[in-house]
DNA sequence: CATGGGATTGACT
DNA sequence: GTCAATCCCATGC
């Protein structure tokens, strides 16, 4: 049996996500996200887990956290600050509330479409933040709970160019609880990482 | 039912 | 550096 004659590689399977969330967050650097004619390489992620108070799932099972506690390999999309849709990949076995927030991409497919959706031209302004990349890819709240293995949002494996990315960790952005956990992961030196960039040297704080 | 707080961004002092 | 936009939802009365 031949593989289908598609340009894109198969999406990551649900098994990929059914692992400790920190492991998945690191592994997702260099992978691809694709939706509605646009795609990018993941250059920044953050991990969230129901054992720590910055995670939405910390409060337990509610209508909002239903997706977070559900099956791994699905999208958790929620509205942030009343304005932005933020994309997460649900991780760990069903019953555990954990997810990886996709924080930044390096655009590589449909860049003109991204420019139109964003109303901006500079490549570094298109996907360099969690709210920016959902706008650039056309992802909305309706995709909450959808499968990342079958679409409409698909996450694919690392391509040859990104086989062994240099990943740096830092503290998570924009939270007020559990601020000391270094659960943010970035592709070292990449220009599409959101601000503030993690310190490359002198990781002591 | 009223309130308050965000896993952000862009515009502005 | 400051700040408002805007809305979902958890919480408390």
Describe this structure as you would to a colleague.
The chain is of the alpha+beta class. Helix content is 13%, strand content 25%. It contains four helices and eight strands; from the N terminus they run H-H-E-E-E-E-E-H-H-E-E-E. It has helices spanning 14-17, 21-27, 111-118, 130-137, and strands at residues 32-35, 38-49, 75-80, 84-90, 98-109, 154-156, 167-170, 184-187. Strands 1, 2, 3, 4, 5, 6, 7 and 8 form an eight-stranded antiparallel beta sheet that branches. Strand 4 and strand 5 (98-109) form a beta hairpin. The radius of gyration is 16 Å and the shape is globular. The mean pLDDT is 92. It binds a DNA duplex (13 and 13 nucleotides) through residues 46, 48, 54-56, 59, 62-64, 78-84, 86, 88, 101, 103, 129-132, 141, 172-176, 194.
**Order of SSEs, N→C?**
HHEEEEEHHEEE
- Residues in helices, as a percent range: 10-25%
Poorly predicted runs are none
Which structural class is indicated by helix and strand composition? alpha+beta
- Care to count the β-strands? 8
Number of helices: 4
Tell me the radius of gyration: 16 Å
Distance between the termini: 54 Å
- Residue share in β-strands: 25-35%
